[in-house]
Specification:
The complex is a heterodimer. By secondary structure, chain A is of the alpha/beta class. Chain A is 31% helix and 26% strand. Chain A is built from 9 helices and 10 strands. In chain A, the strands form 2 sheets. Chain A has a 6-stranded mixed beta sheet, sandwiched between helices. In chain A, helix 6 links the parallel strand 7 and strand 8. The longest helix of chain A has 16 residues. Chain A is globular and about 50 Å long. The two termini of chain A are 25 Å apart. By secondary structure, chain B is mainly alpha-helical. Chain B has 2 domains: 278 residues, ABC transporter involved in vitamin B12 uptake, BtuC; 89 residues, Arc Repressor Mutant, subunit A, CATH 1.10.10. Chain B is 74% helix and 3% strand. A 3-stranded antiparallel beta sheet of chain B has the order 1-3-2. In chain B, helix 2 runs antiparallel to helix 12, helix 3 runs parallel beside helix 5 and helix 14 packs across helix 16. The chains are: A alpha/beta, B mainly alpha.
Amino acid sequence: MEQKIAVKVDDLTVAYNYKPVLWDIDLEIPESVLMAIVGPNGAGKSTLIKSILGILNPIAGSISIYDKPYDKQRQLVAYVPQKGSVDWDFPTTALDVVMMGTYGSLGWIKRPGQKQKKAALEALEKVGMLPFKNRQISQLSGGQQQRIFLARALVQNASIYFMDEPFQGVDATTEIAIINILKELRKAGKTVIVVHHDLQTVPEYFDWVTFLNVKKIATGPVKDIFNDDNLTKTYGINYKVSIQE
Amino acid sequence: MDLKEYFSLVFNDYTLRTITLGTAILGAVTGMLGSFAVLRKQSLLGDAISHAALPGIAIAFLITGAKDTNILLLGALVSGLIGTFWIRGIVKKTHLKSDTALGLILSLFFGFGMLLLTFIQKQPNANQAGLDKYLFGQAATLVESDVWLMAIVTGLCVLVLLLFWKEFKILLFDADYTKTLGFNTKTIDILITSFIVLAIVLGLQTVGVVLMSAMLLAPAAAARQWTNSLAKMVFLAAIFGAFSGVFGTAVSASQNNLSTGPVIVIVAAVFVVFSFIFSPSRGLLFKQIRFIKNRRDLKLHKTLAFMHQIAETHEDISHPHTIKILNNFQGYTKGTLKKLVDKGFVQLQGNMWSMTEKGYSTAANLYNQQTDSHE
């Protein structure tokens, strides 16, 4: 059966000043995959996500979500930024941050009500953070902050989730909790795209992978393309990994 | 006039009432908007804007040749806005960081403003005297219409804050994410920045170019110490700002007409210092007290844990041991032993100590409790 294409990137080129960060990227991400984007530092992984989401302006290229321009399909897409991108000393609570996930569907001016609050509480429950709902966000651990960000994206009830290094600086327990939620999302037919650093866990966590180093090196099912050849092409060194059956 | 006399006069005396109302409203609106500037880490923006407003005042005077406050402030508004958008432009188009852009625009505009002021002072026009009042402000020049203008802008500001509260909050916390939700972050940003410029310009007459940024920052910095909720912070900052205005005016009016602007700023600074020291959760005083208390508790816990280790080896936990055995242990002092007795964890009999049931179970759960309270 032919899989639907959830995200399509055409000829995407992004540059900061003169140096290209992403060069002529073509990418098709099928629906209902759990995909890792891997590559060395400076390969443009975060930039790729941010350009797809319209946070950065590419020099060239177009993005479509389910065959329509991204601008028209925003409500289908949720985003989990890097944890370090915000000031966690901001005066607000965990529940309040998760509620922000509902702002997009509310639109301008309208305030969140009981319905939105209920959705936020459910998301907090899902990530195991319900007991911390009234906690000031600076008093949460790094792993808990990451869970809050995940819950905020879950509230959006999107079809496609983009996550920028959700496992950065979290302990093993949190990592497992997060990956289990991501796997559940995929089972429910959602598409999940994750910037990932730990090559060891790629075969275990993901079923789809994109190798990126300014240019796209390869993209496809983990079992077919996650091999020494592509790793060497991407990282420039002979990176030995063993793929566990 | 002493303070008491001031407060009895404030409701009847037209001038006093006007000035007090004006500074209170000004303090409230700058406090509210200052919270946003502080949380966006744009604390210096206020300073840059107020300095950037100076050439506008001078140019407005050169064009009209009159000292109509509203026209001068309109000039200030225009040049303040130009300065602000140049700062944004510099940050966006060059490699320069925002502090450099702020410093650059601040000194450039202020320098140009001063140049124009000295040029104006050399003019034969007798009307020119007093333009330099805008450097440090002069609250005494406030008239009823000025206060009305401030009140209208403040009301408008409150209305906009209430309407776009959710948008402001999410932009402050996570601008990139706000963009992905489909909000035009530029619109929200321009809205909030314009109000900050407006509030600053309104304050120039009272507090002046040089000190205006303190009105923006001090109430907000003080308010942040007392609460972890954005709404409460904005509200508190407005209150602190308003009180700074009232007290500042009171002190300046009662003390032989000390210059009002600086006094208001000093009063606001007192709020800040008080908040830094005495805030229960973030203040220095309670932090230090908590630190000392924790250290004492830890000493006590160490001794208790050591005793628990010894008691564990006996079937009867209240088996007595000699006090000497504790001397080898560094956490032990006579004081800690006495405290353990006071808490009912340990019993003393001559030279011997023994653990109580309560002490034993507390010691056994010591580690668990600590992990619980941290989770």
